[in-house]
Amino acid sequence: MSETLFAHGLGGSSDLPIPVTYALIGGAWALAASFAILLLAWKTPRLNPRRYGTTTPLERVVDAPVFRGAVGAVSVALSVWVGIASVIGPQDSSNALLGVFYVLVWVGLVPASLIFGPVWRIVSPVRAVYRMLPVRAHRPLPQGVGVLPAVLGLFAFVWLELAASDPGSVAAVQVWCLLYVVVMLVGAVVFGEEWFARADPFEIFSDTVARLSVFARDPETRRVVVRNPLDGAATLPVQRGTVTVLAMLLGSTAFDSLAQTPTWKNFVRDAGDPVVARTLGILMCVAVVGGFFQLAARATGGVSKARRAQLPGLLAHSLIPVVVGYFFAHYLTYLVEKGQQSIFTLFDPFDRGWNPLGVADASVNYALSSHPSVVATITVLSVVIGHVVGVTLAHDAALRLIPKRHALLGELALMIVMVLYTFLGLYLLFGA
User: Fold this and answer.
1) Which residues pair with 224 in a beta bridge?
2) Among 163, 173, 200, 153, which residue's Cα sits nearest to residue 99?
């Protein structure tokens, strides 16, 4: 993909008004101070994943067959529109498929899910197509599989975006999307709709971020409720592969920043095979993120061997705000500015000079890129706030899961890992 499409609007540290050293020190101090305050003021668990807050009448709308049918029809129609445009439209970075795939879907899922909840369950065109099929599966998906199929799907996406020889190739994205549709539909025919919940990388991504949404479902009444997002984070299901999903999301974003640094670019240039080098780089970043978290979550006493093995999964929800914060820091200008262009392209994807609603006369607003001090401030705040919320979730969970006399050691290990994440995240963002 062209450098233009991958430009996230954040220059190197020499271009920004905040020196990278100040950003690192400030972030680490903010995280350490928040941890100290939590230890002194938050001595008993306060968050309750079973507390679902105030009920709303929203389920009458979102569960109505007319609403679901209309959204599904629009989703499928838009997918067909973009698919046709990918074949007939310009075969370069202006192709509508690239903007929809990389910007509106992948990056746009974060704010959409954070605000509205697990939106991909409703807007997924593949789910909509499956509901129209005359067959229904009766074979259950083995619980031991967990969300490992989604892990593979997430890796396939980030590999295409960050490691493939030409991620901006329209043909490559077409093949990826075709394989995605086939795998999702075949799996659903065999295992039913549960396949989407455990294998669809976009749905897993959306559902994970949605744990921090103010909107949720009461599992008993199925009512849509307004809740404390921190209560919602702890509802993340603990399944095989849950920690790997979060490590993949955070580690791949970190690699995207690493890939912009001069050191990495020189390394890839000198490597025998750039694709292999980038693939190993992604795996390395994911392994570092996941490995350190696994070690920190297990670094406590007073629990049985079996319980110690469960702790990484039980604490994994503390990484959700870290993922969200880093996504906003890394992709905000990319989403706002490339998102506008991607939407404009949908009105004339065949480059025929169409001008419905006067969209052809509109221009992208580059206000964020024009104000680097604002971008730098948002970047630091997104990373720091995400980590502070993550420390808060980890602290409350530790009070529930670890015996009190051993909780401090376990929390200190997690605190050290969070500081490490903060340093590396800010360094890569500003150093790139």
Assistant:
1) 217
2) 173
Q: What span, in angstroms and rounded, lies between the C-alpha atoms of 432 and 430? A: 6
Would you mind telling me the total number of residues written for the chain in this entry? 432
Mean pLDDT by 10 residues, the chain (432 residues): 44 50 70 74 85 86 92 95 92 90 94 95 95 83 92 97 92 96 95 93 97 91 90 92 96 90 86 91 95 90 84 94 92 90 88 75 82 83 88 88 77 82 79 60
Cross-strand bridge partners of residue 55: 225
Question: CA 399 to CA 403: how far, in whole Å?
Answer: 7
Alpha carbon separation from 168 to 3, 77, 162, 354, 418 (Å, rounded): 10, 24, 10, 24, 34
Residue 412 structure tokens:
């200190």
* Dist CA 311 CA 400 (whole Å): 11
Here the tokens at position 349 are 């994807």
This prediction has a pTM of: 0.91
> Which amino acid is it at 384?
V
Q: From the DSSP assignment, how many helices (H) and strands (E) are in the chain?
A: 21, 3
